[in-house]
Amino acid sequence: MKILITGAKGMLAQAVRERFLRDAEGAENELVLTDVVPGEIEVTHGETVEKLATIGLDITDFEAVSRVISEARPEVIINCAAYTNVDAAELNAELAEKINADGPANLAKMAKEAGAVLVHISTDYVFGGIKPVTEEYSEDDPKEPQSVYGITKLHGEEKIAENTDRFYIFRTAWLYGQGKNFVRTMLTVAEGRDEVTVVNDQHGSPTYAEDLADIIYQAVSKNIPFGIYNATNLGFTTWAEFTEEIYRQAGVNCKVVGVSSEEYEQQAMARAAEKGEEYKVAPRPKNSQMSKQKLADAGIAIRHWSPALAEYLRREGKLIK
Ligand SMILES: NC(=O)c1ccc[n+]([C@@H]2O[C@H](COP(=O)([O-])OP(=O)(O)OC[C@H]3O[C@@H](n4cnc5c(N)ncnc54)[C@H](O)[C@@H]3O)[C@@H](O)[C@H]2O)c1
Q1: pTM, 2 dp
Q2: Which of 12, 95, 170, 312 gets mutated to test ligand 1 (max ligand atoms within 8 A of its CB)?
Q3: What is the rounded end-to-end Cα distance, in angstroms, of the chain?
């Protein structure tokens, strides 16, 4: 199978590259890697590491998207490119819209022309997050994004659906994988400290990038029905409880003190003001709990977030318990 990946240097893309390098029988898939800046990327598969070239491709440039896809003729396009800085998007709405909405529109148009399936990643932030925490969001619930990032990601979903029928959109949340991420940050901030403060009023599902890559792999190889799917690890928690579990599994002795989103925002704004920086904290959904029933009905198995975290920590050499 020939697969073109955009944003191929990103966190999720790393897991997608590894998962799609070979098919279930071990035969090599042909990967066409692209990102804004070209260069080589290392792809690990078991004991082997392969160096693959990355083509320069800005997904907001329709001419470039058209040329690269026409030349490559992929069967599947996986869009891992996005404007992902949620707070910075509040002050850079135009750029976020270009990357998160116009880019996916370009890819959808060309996917249709090339006869390729388009896989795109969206977010829990398309929902308002105002349901009581005893309830979950299903795919068709009303979309009420509260942040610029959420609005631009919703526009991306809409533009894909307007331009092609053969698409999968996976709405994920609280993603961590190789490179800089929440888990690594919380392990670093605990060094030399007795306690950390973490938000305790946002509810959602931490999601291991490798597990999301596997969901994408299963969906594509099993040809599940096209459409939009919620796609996170199973189970729900808060950022504070997630941090406690990170410390428990990694054997870190650091107390987690819960704070509200409002307190966290005041602290972040005060830190930015001290540095004289212009900053805005984007509103985040209090309830990001998404039902995965639709994926289950399509025959896709997902594991709970806690064993997924253990596997990540084992890979990082940090798992103790
Ligand atoms: N990280 C999370 O917690 C989270 C949560 C929900 C949804 N998502 C979604 O998951 C997807 C993957 O997120 P990630 O955390 O791996 O992202 P990331 O920020 O690690 O990677 C994004 C990649 O996109 C590339 N990119 C940016 N602008 C581009 C452009 N104009 N053209 C081509 N490439 C461009 C970047 O160079 C980078 O390699 C995104 O769609 C994101 O919105 C992420």
Answers
A1: 0.96
A2: 12
A3: 40
